[in-house]
Structure to design on (677 residues):
């Protein structure tokens, strides 16, 4: 599904990613953990196509394509979805209009019929119910004045509507209450299947209790310094990153 | 003849000299002398030049270079007029009222052609719009052939009225100078939806002047859609006087024309009067739009709000000048002015000149201005959701305009503005 080889990148001349190798097969869920400033969000944004970063080396293949050659909207149409660590506020853009435009853009790219306002409303209401989101969040400007947890749920709602092949969740669990955490994990689990993979960036073991990952990678100083099974996350929770810092 | 006005101004004056005996109301002594004085004032001043402080950012040379003729008398019927949106509509073609195309409704409201009843305009025409104060008002006074007169009687809600102006295709450049007189008696109400359109290939000057009198407790909502043809010029001047407890709401969409000025002079003349002047300007390569407001707080306890938003693409230029004059008597004035511009191209330019002159001491008056480009994070967020970049840009520009469009409380007028904005996008594609 996703294969990253020797990826290096910098911002304003400052190296941030220093050689990332990661192989995420179809059907698997991998977690990325690591201290603040390690480069986790940089990797996520870079995969989604944000232009602030200069790729200085390496390759990324996604579903058989050269991912780095695609525009952000083409990556989304190809099935990549990033749940932002900090969802962007869109004053003056109604959330319903935003969600419908995004969903229909993806549907058009997949050769599916666009949904009209009524069909969309039916679908989105159903998805919102399962995420325990109040319906007035459709009427407000997207993410504007949403609480931290509401913004994260709105990201998960988008994922549930678009049904991506690859979901990258960047600290989607931060700021969520315990019930929401479980709901979000259920949202991801509902998509699980042979054609769905997820890259879950998190600081907390709790999400991984609900969303048991196939692999856990530890990113420190722009490199993956260790990979292992779910037990690695439990060890980090208990001991911190100290025992790995030397390796970085 | 003291001083010859240069170029196109001279041609406009020759027009007056050749036409004056045939202009409507030529046999009314008060009007003949008003026109003569106006022509003299225009001769003395010529078209405004950038040396005049009020015209520093708008250069009228493209207009001065053209020799405009008066419109021919045409009876052709095929007009691409937009569908009627309000119960009444007065249609003007090339500055002249066209009864056959209009739908004036019941006669509870005095409504019709100015040229048809000029004697009734004595004492009213020229009261607010004084030729000696403004060269374009002088030009309009000297040369107007027609216009709309409306008087809404006391206590009557006249509902919605459209004023649609259209310029037909012509081989020679033409100029028209309609004069509109609007009066709301105490407690009266009116929604006036004005639209101005013209043939895309015709060079023309549309130089309307409005005199708007709003009596005690009356309320006028005036929504303007400026969608002139690509080679058209509109220099519009509005004079509004608002008495105690009255309200004047003006919204202007500038979305057409090559060179456009939207100039509003409003006087809050009685206590607790209110004035809202809002608008949006959408500019493409080669266009110039100027919004200039002069607001006089001349009585205590009045309130004013102004928000203008300008979107500029290509090599376009926008101007906003807003003067608020708070007179010494105007205690407890509440004034606010905001001007925001969104630059879509590095070659676009916006000039902004707020001017507060405050002579009262108990006053709340603020102004602000912002200039920016589209937000890169917002654009990326939308694209990361699969929305193609051009669509994402449109969404963000619409969002930028949203709150100012939402200031229009009347649904049909707000819809008309939204449609005009959507049409602007379509024209761009
Ligand atoms: N646009 C930028 N300009 C300058 N530095 C940047 C920029 N973006 C990221 N960085 C730097 O890159 C490093 C990695 O940042 P990143 O956001 O990827 O960390 P992270 O692992 O996601 O951290 P956290 O756990 O706090 O979210 C940080 O030192 C950050 O300051
Ligand atoms: Mg991060």
């Amino acid at each position: 599904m996703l294969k990253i080889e020797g990826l290096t990148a910098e911002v304003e001349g400052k190296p941030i990613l220093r050689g990332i190798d990661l192989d995420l097969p179809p059907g698997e869920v991998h977690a990325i953990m690591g201290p603040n400033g390690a480069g986790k969000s940089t990797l996520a944004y870079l995969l989604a196509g944000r232009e602030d970063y200069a790729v200085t080396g390496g390759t990324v293949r996604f579903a058989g394509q050269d991912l780095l050659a695609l525009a952000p909207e083409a990556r989304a149409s190809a099935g990549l979805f990033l749940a932002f660590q900090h969802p962007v506020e869109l004053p003056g853009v109604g959330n319903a209009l935003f969600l419908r435009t995004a969903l229909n853009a993806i549907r058009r790219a997949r050769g599916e019929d666009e949904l009209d306002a009524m069909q969309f409303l039916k679908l989105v209401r159903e998805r919102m119910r399962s995420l325990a989101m109040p319906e007035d969040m459709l009427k407000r400007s997207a993410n504007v004045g949403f609480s931290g947890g509401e913004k994260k749920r709105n990201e998960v709602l988008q994922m549930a509507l678009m049904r991506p092949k690859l979901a990258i969740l960047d600290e989607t669990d931060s700021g969520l209450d315990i019930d929401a955490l479980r709901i979000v994990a259920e949202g991801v689990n509902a998509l699980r299947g042979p054609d769905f993979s997820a890259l879950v960036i998190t600081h907390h073991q709790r999400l991984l209790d609900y969303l048991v990952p196939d692999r856990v990678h530890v990113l420190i100083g722009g490199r993956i310094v260790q990979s292992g099974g779910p037990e690695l996350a439990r060890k980090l929770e208990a001991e911190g990153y100290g025992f790995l810092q030397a390796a970085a | 003849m003291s001083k010859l006005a240069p170029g196109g101004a001279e041609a406009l004056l020759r027009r007056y000299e050749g036409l004056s005996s045939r202009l409507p109301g030529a046999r009314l002594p008060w009007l003949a002398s008003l026109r003569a004085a106006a022509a003299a004032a225009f001769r003395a001043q010529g078209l405004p030049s950038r040396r005049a402080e009020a015209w520093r950012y708008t250069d009228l040379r493209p207009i001065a270079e053209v020799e405009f003729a008066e419109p021919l008398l045409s009876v052709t019927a095929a007009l691409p007029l937009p569908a009627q949106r309000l119960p009444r509509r007065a249609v003007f073609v090339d500055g002249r009222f066209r009864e056959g195309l209009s739908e004036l409704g019941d006669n509870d409201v005095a409504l019709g052609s100015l040229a048809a009843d000029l004697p009734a305009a004595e004492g009213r025409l020229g009261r607010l719009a004084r030729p000696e104060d403004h060269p374009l008002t002088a030009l309009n006074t000297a040369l107007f052939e027609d216009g709309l007169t409306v008087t809404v009687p006391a206590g009557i809600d006249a509902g919605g009225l459209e004023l649609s102006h259209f310029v037909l295709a012509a081989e020679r450049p033409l100029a028209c100078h309609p004069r509109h007189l609007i009066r709301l008696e105490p407690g009266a109400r009116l929604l006036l939806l004005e639209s101005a359109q013209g043939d895309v290939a015709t060079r023309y000057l549309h130089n309307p002047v409005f005199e708007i009198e709003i009596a005690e407790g009356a309320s006028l909502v005036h929504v303007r859609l400026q969608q002139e043809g690509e080679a058209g010029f509109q220099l519009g001047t509005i004079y509004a006087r608002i008495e105690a407890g009255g309200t004047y709401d003006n919204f202007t969409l500038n979305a057409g024309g090559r060179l456009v000025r939207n100039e509003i002079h409003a006087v809050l003349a009685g206590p607790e009067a209110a004035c809202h002047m809002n608008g949006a300007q959408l500019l493409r390569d080669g266009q110039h739009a100027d919004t200039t407001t002069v607001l006089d707080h001349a009585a205590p306890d009045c309130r004013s709000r102004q928000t203008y938003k300008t979107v500029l693409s290509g090599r376009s230029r926008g101007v906003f000048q807003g003067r608020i004059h708070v007179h010494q008597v105007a205690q407890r004035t509440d004034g606010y002015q905001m001007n925001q511009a969104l630059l879509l191209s590095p070659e676009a330019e916006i000039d902004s000149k707020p001017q507060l002159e405050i002579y009262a001491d108990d006053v709340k008056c603020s102004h602000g201005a912002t200039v920016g480009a589209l937000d890169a994070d917002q654009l990326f967020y939308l694209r990361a959701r699969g929305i193609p970049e051009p669509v994402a840009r449109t969404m963000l520009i619409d969002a930028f305009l949203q709150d100012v469009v939402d200031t229009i409380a009347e649904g049909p007028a707000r819809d008309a503005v939204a449609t005009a904005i959507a049409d602007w996008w379509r024209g761009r594609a």
Remarks:
- Residues A 11-12, 16, 34, 36-42, 52, 85 surround adenosine-5'-triphosphate (ligand 1) (CB under 6 Å).
- Chain B touches chain A through 23 residues (CB under 8 Å).
